[in-house]
Amino acid sequence: MTDAPARDYRGTVFLPQTPFPMRGDLPKREPGWLERWERIGLWDRLRARSANREKFVLHDGPPYANGALHIGHALNKVLKDVINRAAQMSGRDAEYIPGWDCHGLPIEWKVEEEYRDPKGKHGGRGKDSVSVLEFRAECRAYAAHWLDVQREEFKRLGVAGDWAGRYATMDFASEAAIAGEIGKFLMNGSLYRGLRPVMWSPVEKTALAEAEVEYHDHKSAILYAGFPILKAAAADLVGAEAVIWTTTPWTIPANRALAYGAEIDYAVLVVDAVAEGVELVRPGQRFIVAEALIGAFAKEVGLAAFSVTRVFKGTELAGAVAAHPLRRWSGAAGGYQFDVPLLEGEFVTTDAGTGLVHLAPAHGEDDFHLTRAHGIAVPECVGDDGTYTVQAPGFTGLHVFKAHDAVWAALAETGHLAGRGFITHSYPHSWRSKKPVIFRATPQWFIAMDDANQIRAKALQAIADTHFVPDMGRNRIGSMVAARPDWCISRQRAWGVPIAVFVEKKSGEVLRDQAVLDRIDAAFRAEGADAWYKPGAAARFLGEGRNPDDYEQVMDIVDVWFESGSTHAFVLRDRGLPVPADLYLEGSDQHRGWFHSSLLESVGSQGFAPFKAILTHGFVLDEGGRKMSKSLGNVTAPQEVTKQYGADILRLWVMNSDTADDLRIGKNILGQQAELYRRIRNTLRWLLGNLDGFEEAEKLPHAELPELERWVLHRLSELDARLRRAVADHDWNGVYPEIHAFCATDLSAFYFDIRKDSLYCDAADSPRRRAARTVLDALHRCLTTWLAPVMPFTAEEAWLARFPSEDGSVHLQDFPAVPAEWRDEALAAKWEQVRGIRRAVTGVLEKARVAGEIGSSLQAAPVLHLPPGAMDLLPAEAWAELCITSGLTLSAGPAPEGALAAEGVAEEMAGAAARFAPAPGQKCDRCWRVLPEVGDASRAHPALCFRCEAVVESSPA
Can you say whether the dihedral through the CA atoms of 539, 544, 549, 553 is positive or negative? Predict the structure, then answer.
């Protein structure tokens, strides 16, 4: 016993110290980091120090400058930013030029709404009351406003880029370049004007691209109509009615032919009786329908009894001619007296309907091509507003979507309406107005897919040569390109880049003159595309020697998908960036949008794809998997997330999600991400606290590190390889969840827990503590740089907390080079078994804790039974250190009954088990281990163990 007074040893322990706070307080702190990066010129410094590096170019697909950002924008830009930052930190020069799509219908529609609104700033005077130049100026101002709003919102998300040098499709240089790209197709012969059905919006009065169309359920009228056969090879067919079924009754006035399948079996069906209440069909009528569809047809039109007089192959219908079912309609004044020929069509099936298809050449792709192949004229029965023209006698002025009653009544009068009703089915709608669209043949400008330029063939080869993430995107875009028609690039609107070409009125030939194109280019670069609309423009561009009265100046604008598809020409090539770009990255809907148009435009103008790789992500849904909408109240706005949680939390959500699939977000999911963030932040804080005062001289060479430290470095080498593989192939799914799991499981719950004793209580120069701090240094450098792409604000804070600097930044660092010697597969295999056995020990300790036998694992000294072959895995003191106990006894004997067996270990480790035993001795006042030596150390420090006594005695007073 001793008379020495009790001492407080807390001042002798190396407790963690760091200015890095536990709470991130991101919403308040993040804006300050943005200001700092701006102040130190971070982006320009990165470009300067990367001047001699290999370029990495992720070409930005331009978002639309129309409204505040939504969560899909945030997902897209964050994913791009992570990839750019990671490429930069991997040794590339990641020069990122953000851009905006500024032309087109959505903006024009919004500005038109302002003109239409009687209470708006224009007083309801209408768009047509002002010049096209004044209207275009309104559109430009609208786009410029939202471009600026979105730019600041993207910057708030921590997205790094050349914001000062951003591109916009409405910049004068951009408009000139887009017109120039059109000129290339003009000069190589692929641009032509032709008549063909296109998707047409009667509301917006313009053609639409496939990417501007979305499908919704729609209630459509249907009808069955009979076309009386006037002439046929077989006499028994004359007088019978060839029956068609359609979901577009409004196209009946535009009918000019019927189609049949040559190998389909058709039947002549005689009506014997009709069901009660049926008035449209009559006993004695003879119908021609596909044999396979007789049952469905009879049920739909109400046949109570019928007989089949003959079955024949479709080939017998060759050369047959029918009458239009409205031929005898009193309301048409003889307007439907033309013959309706029956034509063989490969597209005819027996999937539904009657096996016969009515052809309205102006309103269907198959209809158009088959009738044109037989020299049948294409009538213009429907105007640009969706109402019938004079070429639809009896219906002129009626809107097609309100025409079914009138068509039904007209067919009923002639006796050729066999059935009518409604059907709900998926139908194309304009994505802007949300109104249904129609197919309508109008003169439009097209780019040929299969002429001498061979765009389709070249595009399909380019798809085969492109790296897709995920790979399923290859088949999706490939099937679209393989099946698509010629590209309709004209729109009948005002806000956009004009298709700046001239057509000679006399010959109808388009003018191909490079000098004219050069004059247009110079004017557009100086004045913008508005130059096309200024007085005297035709004479100015045609030049001397041509009379502008002899030429039509085309006033259609180009499809906005052509505009955005040609951005590679003025964003990459004109700025000296490599072409093709390393990566295009957008949502999966862009297989038919930007990826598609960019591919066709680039292949057509320069012969190769504008990208080496394509990465696609899914859409964002609410927590229940529903599409977000204001009416449902389930919208998660990125602005609100950054305000409540901070941008780093939103960015972490992106990178913790499987971005190849649809993502979900909401209050609970964001709360989970905040918890994940807290764990990562605590890991960084623990590292910083235990690296306080660390100097390079403390480092130990790899060969002198204990196995536990070498195992941690091996895990770092595995994560480094995973990260670099993602940088190379652009597949980031799972990378940051692995890093989080490493922080939470391998570090916080294992390595940190074990090494706390050494870091806090060993002597400052002890090899074990130096080894741990050597690894902590590597961990800090790796984790802060690895996390910098996804958590740029937090990583910057964690870097500067250790390396304070007025102008330093983690974003000026590269990912640390991981030495090859860190990789040790044999060590990793051994420690997998060690950790499996350790779980048996910790399981026993937990049972003892629950039973009240101990309060802390340091009160235990368990017995670990190992098979003979495992006795050399680790010495007993190493097992005690690993299990955070004050002692541990190894036993080669079989485990007694009640011992807890290790599970999931290798076969040679079978039999490993642990049983509880209390630690003998007293608790050390400094390290809290329970040891027999406590009390026997010295009269000066009777409450300490030998280790702690030596440390205290050697420390300066």
Answer: negative
Q: Is 488 known as a binding-site position? A: no
CB 892 within 8 A of CB 870: no
| Long-range contacts formed by 888-897: CB under 8 A, 24+ apart | 888/841, 888/861, 888/862, 888/863, 888/864, 889/861, 889/862, 889/863, 889/864, 889/917, 890/863, 890/864, 890/866, 891/863, 891/864, 891/865, 891/866, 892/865, 892/866, 892/867, 892/868, 893/865, 894/865, 895/865
Distances 174 to 524, 746, 919, 952 between C-alpha atoms, Å = 9, 52, 78, 73
Token pair in block for residue 864: 């670990």
Region 82-94: mean pLDDT is 98
Tally of CB atoms within 10 A around 494:
18
Was 344 annotated as part of a binding site? no
Mean pLDDT across the chain: 92
Q: What's the rounded Cα separation, in Å, for the pair 572 and 581?
A: 8
381 is in an annotated binding site: no
Among residues 341, 244, 261, the alpha carbon closest in space to that of 300 is found at 244
Comparing CA positions, the residue from 947, 922, 926 lying closest to residue 935 is 922
Segment 494-520, tens digit of pLDDT = 999 999 999 998 888 999 999 999 999
R_g over Cα of the chain:
38
Q: Is the pLDDT of residue 70 over 70?
A: yes
Residues 6+ apart with CB under 8 A from 397: 387, 388
- CA dist 864 and 867 (Å) reads 10
pLDDT band for position 130 (cuts 50, 70, 90): confident
pTM: 0.85
* 38 has a pLDDT exceeding 80: yes
DSSP string, 320-389: -EEE-TTTT-GGGTSTT-SEEEEEE-TT--SSSTTS-EEE-TTS-HHHHHHHHHTT------B-TTSBB-
Domain range list for the chain: 1-40+645-801, 219-382+400-424, 500-555, 827-920
**890 in helix, strand or coil?**
strand
SS3 helix, strand, coil % of the chain, rounded to 5?
Answer: 45, 20, 40
Q: Is 948 annotated as a binding residue?
A: yes
| Interval 363-381 mean pLDDT | 85
* 782 labeled binding residue: no
Token pair for 472: 């399923």
Name the fold adopted by 1-40+645-801.
Isoleucyl-tRNA Synthetase; Domain 1 (1.10.730)
How many residues belong to the chain?
957
Same fold, 219-382+400-424 and 827-920: no
Omega before 379 within 30 of 0, i.e. cis: no
512-523 in b/e burial notation, b at 16+ Cβ within 10 A?
ebeebbebbbeb
Q: What is the pLDDT of residues 865-918, one digit of tens each?
A: 999 888 999 999 999 999 999 999 999 988 898 899 988 888 878 889 999 999
- 916: helix, strand or coil: coil
pLDDT attached to residue 295: 86
Give the 3-state secondary structure of 391-412. Answer: CCCCCCCCEHHHCHHHHHHHHH
945 has binding-site annotation: yes
**Fold entry, domain 827-920:** hypothetical protein PF0899 fold (3.30.2320)
SS3 state at 60: coil
What are the distances in angstroms from CA 757 to CA 123, 138, 470, 752? 77, 69, 46, 9
**pLDDT of 431-446, one tens digit each?**
777 888 888 888 889 9
Backbone angles phi, psi at 245, to 5 degrees: -130, 135
- DSSP-derived pairing of the beta strands 930-931 and 922-923: antiparallel
| Locus of tokens 């009615």 | 241
Query: Candidates 3.30.870.10, 2.40.50.40, 3.90.740.10, 3.40.640.10; correct CATH number of 219-382+400-424?
Result: 3.90.740.10
pLDDT band at 1 (very low <50, low <70, confident <90, very high): very low
Banded model confidence at residue 457, pLDDT cuts 50, 70, 90: very high
